[in-house]
Design brief:
By secondary structure, this protein is of the alpha/beta class. Helix content is 22%, strand content 22%. The strands form five sheets. Strands 2, 3, 4, 5, 6 and 7 form a six-stranded mixed beta sheet that branches. Strands 1-9-12-15-20 form a five-stranded parallel beta sheet, with no helix packed on it. Bound molecules: zinc ion (ZN).
Length: 442
């Protein structure tokens, strides 16, 4: 610096160049240091609304879980079990046989076909790009036969009782989404299922399906129809409702399905239900979609014999349930593409991750919620980045067989050239306010 001062007494044109150079010398290291020193005040504030942006909004919106979005890169497999309820003497329902197991295997194969490669909608909404792969699969982990004359023919809303009766005999089946086949009846419905829970992450899901066919003649059974029925009920387990009477019907609702109902009141809609902006579709098993008088569709939740289509927002909602609701405990999968954190943010949501999380250099993740991760996943703190577990928790996903891979802190490194060479500190982890990190390998 002293040398520069002596130059300042040189002729004017030198002065201009050197003053500029001196200012630049003072300014540039300040900028580069600001990016990497690890005091809060020195971390860049590159968020639109303050130093730490709360990501609650992002985690809560179904559109952010449409397949291919950064939060939904992994294909997830849901572990299911099928339970056949018989009378005490073993009669009253399907009997155990290799042939039955083959048919049930076929039902699950078809289920996967629908979810992997779902048919396009009959009535597409203009401007929507429909997807084939929902990123959801099913794996049949167990078929069980249960003899219980009191329970075998239960009616409405007994799924929890059936679940508990199974868990009393086979406790490991709490890890699977249980589908109960009974000859019962509930007001003429084909069956029912429960919605996932937001509040209690270990709540159990169930499907109850009423088998009304001649159960001794397996060849005469409409297995494809049974599959469509189970697909519909699993849709409820994954948070979907009926396009014919219970989907969100106000366009301002955050879960409104624009890609199912359209962006405004349909042309054919004269009298929406009170409180609704759009009209529901017709919904019945036999409704003819080619009849211009009807408004039934082939949507998976439409209750129609030609159902199977799933819209992108429905895929998003189901995958959101596999991240933030209780049904996530049955789902497994891993994507090699990490979720990247590239600005300072606070996470106060309870969420399950099926991919690595990388905190990019110069940024902080402030965690007050709980992150569950699948066994294959790691959390990587790049050099110059920071993780603050502030009363939050990172743990293995419920029912994991093994620990998760743990936190990896990238070592300190040098950056820049000559005068501008700077040390980027090791990735930093701070645990405070009873924050926890548990069940990890390293
Ligand atoms: Zn339903």
């Amino acid at each position: 610096m002293r040398k520069i001062e002596t130059y300042l007494i040189k002729p004017y044109h030198y002065k201009c160049i050197l003053v500029f150079f001196a200012l630049w010398m003072l300014y540039f290291p300040a900028v580069s240091a600001n990016r990497f020193v690890s005091g809060d005040e020195n971390f860049p504030d590159n968020t639109p609304d303050g130093a730490f942006k709360n990501k609650k909004e992002m985690f809560s919106h179904q559109k952010n879980y449409i397949p291919g979005q950064p939060l939904n890169l992994a294909v997830k497999t849901i572990f299911i079990a099928i339970n056949v309820w018989q009378k005490d003497d073993g009669t009253g329902n399907f009997k155990e046989s290799d042939e039955l197991l083959e048919y049930l295997g076929q039902v699950v194969d078809w289920l996967n076909k629908i979810f992997r490669s779902c048919p396009p909608p009959f009535d597409p909404v203009a401007g929507i790009e429909y997807l084939r792969d929902s990123h959801i699969r099913f794996e049949l982990k167990d078929v069980g036969f249960y003899r219980n004359t009191d329970l075998y023919e239960v009616g409405c809303f007994q799924g929890k009782r059936l679940n508990e009766a199974v868990f009393a005999v086979s406790p490991e089946k709490r890890k699977f989404l249980n589908i109960h086949l009974t000859p019962g009846n509930c007001r003429g419905a084909s069956g029912y299922a429960n919605y996932p829970s937001s509040g209690s992450s270990d709540a159990d899901s169930y499907v109850v399906s009423f088998v009304k066919h001649d159960r001794d003649d397996l060849e005469s059974i409409q297995w494809w129809a049974l599959m469509l029925h189970i697909a519909h009920e699993l849709g409820h387990n994954l948070d979907l409702r009926h396009p014919y009477n219970s989907e969100y019907c106000q366009t301002s609702h955050p879960d409104f399905l624009f890609d199912l109902f359209g962006f405004e009141k349909q042309e054919w809609c004269n009298n929406p239900r009170p409180g609704c902006d759009i009209c529901y579709h017709d919904g019945s098993w036999g409704c003819d979609r080619d009849d211009p008088e009807t408004t039934c569709t082939n949507n998976i939740m439409g209750g129609n014999k030609s159902s199977g289509s799933i819209t992108p927002l429905q895929m998003g909602r189901m995958n959101r349930a596999l991240a933030v609701k209780s049904v996530r405990k049955y789902a497994w999968g891993y994507s090699l593409v990490p979720y990247e954190i590239s600005f300072n943010q606070t996470w106060d949501t309870g969420i399950k991750f099926y991919q690595d999380i990388v905190i990019k250099s110069g940024n902080t993740l402030h965690l007050t919620g709980t992150i569950e991760v699948v066994p294959e996943a790691s959390l990587i703190i790049e050099s110059g980045a920071r993780l603050v577990i502030d009363g939050g928790k990172i743990t293995s996903a419920l029912y994991s067989d093994t620990h998760w891979q743990g936190v990896i802190k990238e070592p300190a490194r040098k950056t820049g050239f000559l005068f501008w060479r700077k040390k980027v500190p090791e990735g930093e982890m701070i645990i405070t306010n009873n924050g926890k990190i548990e069940n990890y390998l390293r």
